[in-house]
Amino acid sequence: MNQFLKDVIKGLTSDQKTLPSKYFYDEKGSRIFQEIMAAEEYYLPECEVEILQNSSKAILSEISAHELDIVELGAGDGSKTVIFLKEAFKTGKSLTYIPMDISPEILDVNQNLVHAQIPDLLINPIPGDYSVTSELLKERNKPKLILFMGSNIGNFPGEKAVEFIQFVNGLMQEGDFFLMGVDLKKNPHVIRAAYNDKEGVTKRFNLNLLERINRELSGDFDLSAFEHYGVYNPLTGSALSFLVSIKAQTVHISGQEIEFEKFETIHTEISQKYSLKELDKIGSQTGFIWDKHFTDSREFFSLSLFRK
Hints:
This protein is α/β, with parallel strands linked by helices. 37% of the residues lie in helices and 26% in strands. It has two domains: 3-23 and 200-272, no CATH class; 44-186 and 276-307, Rossmann fold.
């Protein structure tokens, strides 16, 4: 049984049915996510780009090291990071950019894009699961700035976020820096709209997970029998995505039967939002002695800089 099938069966036979959000991103899912990124309601990319354009110089001024490894976890295509790298290159520091991603193909895209705009920047891509490949960073003695952009920390529920930041801290030496993209708490209507766009792109993205199970695991999900539901809880700061079975039904996956009650839910994703005070507290909990927040003009998003 492959890992995808194991995770699907385990999730759908739990008391609260779940599907891991990492399986959203097959080829079709990745294309739909690009549509989400361009949606009018999805404010996050625009806010992060604004900060990178307006505050990269100020962020870099906090880092005095003349040599610097800029390490990016889950680097993706580099299209936003290159804004920061251009500013870093202007400082005259001796830089090495180390993008890390599970996909070798996306790292090829990243390297080509960054090289096209900064031909003289040294790039050392590391493909693979960075929870494993990050051990390679410990062999390098240069000062480090570790990047974790795009509000990816929001995909870690509760204590898992703290554990991840502690993991990052463990890769660092005293005086190293960690720059993390964080979606901030704001008007709940703004957040809820971002996960329930009027064009229905988020709905297609969520349902594609069931379509992928049909394609790859011999599933027989009837997509018309499930509805997307996105909700935001301003008390906890959690934006949650669900698929709702709108009737009682039986689904088959690789020969196994999964029963759904009418209106039973599958939890597919969490996107956690934070206040700046909460980020200060998490920083001190996870072994950082200092932090500073750089926000967009509406204070919707932060690039938060932590020092070990």
